[in-house]
Amino acid sequence: MKTIAQISTPLGSGGIAIIRISGDKAKEIAFGVFYAKNLNQENIEPRKLYLGNFKLDQATEKCMMVYFKAPYSFTGEDVVEFQIHGGEFLATKVLQTLLNNGCTLAENGEFSKRAFINGKMTLNDAEAMIDMINATSDAEIKATSLLLSGKYTNEIKQIQDQLKDCLVNLEVSIDYPEHDDEFESISNVKEVLMNTKNKITKLLSTHKEGEKIRFGINVAIIGKPNVGKSSLLNCLIGEDRAIVTDVKGTTRDVLKETINYKGIKINFIDTAGIRESQDVVEKIGIERSKKCIEQSDIVLCVLDASENLDEEDKKLLSLTKNKKVVYVLNKTDKSIVLNIENAILVSASENKNIDEIKEKIINLAKLSKIDFSQVYITNQRHIEILKQALIDIEDALNSTQTQLADIVDQQTKKVWSTLGKITGETETESIIDGIFSKFCLGK
Predict the structure, then answer these.
(1) pTM
(2) Which of 159, 167, 278, 425 could form a disulfide linkage to 420, CB 3.0–4.6 angstroms apart?
(3) Which of 247, 219, 242, 218 is nearest to 231 (CA)?
(4) How many Cβ atoms sit within 10 Å of the Cβ of residue 280?
(5) What is the pLDDT of residue 286?
(6) 3-state class of 142 per DSSP?
(7) Percent of the chain beyond pLDDT 90?
(8) Contact criterion met (CB below 8 Å) for 327 and 303
(9) Structure-model confidence comparison of residues 439 and 106, the more confident one
(10) Where in the chain is the domain with CATH 3.30.1360.120?
(11) What per-residue confidence (pLDDT) applies to 317?
């Protein structure tokens, strides 16, 4: 394969910039542009930083170089990295020099793809790495680090190994019926398929929590006009993001803001006040508010504590049926007339009891005591693969009823192959290319 090169740090001014090269000729090309006293290709020691000079056209750059000998590198190939002074023009100049001396410009994620090809990572390891890079909460980092630890990969591979062992025994019984009992082999396959079904069902059961960990809890803030929804949003996020006035119908569209609370993302959606209105624009906003209620994980129903429920409030409450609801009685700094069981008494104007709302949301979403020692499925591709695996298992289990070993063998292989899409053993090249293209340049 060609020796590739790319800048691995963000372009711009900084302390250092790193340029990485990988391939069979990495060391040879590196010593064509880098020199240090008494250092050559024969005596360089892997994993040691060497201070020297990088030869540019008519200048030199004093920098550090480190060599990773194959297969003990990120890509599994010979890898050399240059740590130079941070600067966009300088980094580009060093990269161009390497290209002029035999390197090929690396594409997005090409270093990681080579790591996958050389068995240094599985496909789901690569996806976990992407999620780790893009993580925006402590919960995402914790969940993703467990995936990167190999626990998830090992679970899938153990399932595949058990299926493979059964297939070997089954195929022996097909080829040599005088030595092995087909019916016994089919019975063993059935048992393993049932165990596999239970394990995959358990993994899939985590995906709802996994989605909340990755994307956050969607919380719709609803209420009739002027109950203080926008003021409450500003308190919850700690910023003046929503416009607050005494004029009814100020909020005419949904406004989404995200916070991190105890490592969990909460997506607050401020909605237009729900009431009967003849204003065309406001009516559109109200319809969007109703849609937000349907799509949210939790509804924050804001009511005026200083007033009794009116017809608009009652219609509003009817919209929250079959939803997880946190009732918030606002304006408690005035007088408290309204009483609703388990409601949280707050004052947005005084920023009072705001954290109680966040605690209630985390508890309702069942994320307050989340166990990060277990794997949570956060990747949509994996969810679809696991769902398909369950369908394949049902087909394989049905085939065991026929007592036809050839059919059982074929259907069980399909289960093994479907699970192989997670690790990349059986996934199509276009999907693999698509996943690695999500990486940035130099990764």
Answers:
(1) 0.79
(2) 425
(3) 242
(4) 7
(5) 58
(6) helix
(7) 47
(8) yes
(9) 106
(10) 4-106
(11) 82
| Homologous superfamily in CATH for domain 4-106 | Probable tRNA modification gtpase trme; domain 1 (3.30.1360.120)
**Element (H or E) spanning 230, and its range?**
helix 229-237
Q: Which residues in 123-275 belong to E strands, given as ranges?
A: 217-222, 255-261, 264-270
Q: Phi and psi (nearest 5°) for 423?
A: -80, -20
Architecture of domain 138-206+377-436 in CATH? Answer: Up-down Bundle (1.20)
CA atoms within 13 A on the CB side of 226: 8
31-42 mean pLDDT: 95
Give start-end residues of each CATH 1.20.120.430 domain in the chain.
138-206+377-436
CATH 3.40.50.300 in the chain is located at 215-364
Say whether pLDDT at 61 is over 50.
yes
Confidence of residue 163 (pLDDT cuts 50, 70, 90): very high
Determine the Cα angle at 435 with ends 429 and 440, to 5°.
130
CA distances from 177 to 189, 209, 257 (A): 16, 48, 66
Architecture of domain 215-364: 3-Layer(aba) Sandwich (3.40)
Contact assessment for residue 156 and residue 421, using Cβ atoms and an 8 Å cutoff: no
Greatest C-alpha distance within the chain: 89
What's the order of all strands across the beta sheet hosting 79-85?
34-35, 49-55, 60-68, 79-85, 16-22, 4-7, 104-105
The CA distance from 181 to 383, in Å, is: 37
Neighbour-count burial for 304-322, b at 16+ CB within 10 Å, e otherwise? bbeeeeeebbeebbeebee
Which pairs from 320-323 meet CB under 8 Å and 24+ separation?
A: 320/222, 320/293, 323/293, 323/296, 323/298, 323/299
